[in-house]
Amino acid sequence: MALLLAVSAATLLGRSWSACDVGVNNAANSGFLLWLFIPGLWTVLLLLWAAVGALLENRPPLRTLALAVTLLGAVWCVISIFWEVSVTPACPSGVPPWWPSFIPTPGF
Fold first, then answer.
1. Residue 44 has pLDDT above 90, yes or no
2. In the chain, which residue ranges form alpha helices assigned H by DSSP?
């Protein structure tokens, strides 16, 4: 689950950066996402998984809900940190053209 979330977050960031011309180029962005972002986020998510599992090991329904909320919250925070909110020529509103309007833009 942690690897799936890490790869999904990297894919979302990579596509948004590509659509808004953020970074040096797609190859440099992909290198960062593949070699630094995914392993780092995967490690953080595995540590959160272990911590929540250890704290709530005797309560399976509560543990499941807590794991979902914790992992999705961590992914949202990481995406918000790396999301490019500055105005770029390709994305004047700060989000790619394909971003659905009913989902709030990542950010704090």
1. yes
2. 2-19, 26-32, 38-55, 60-82
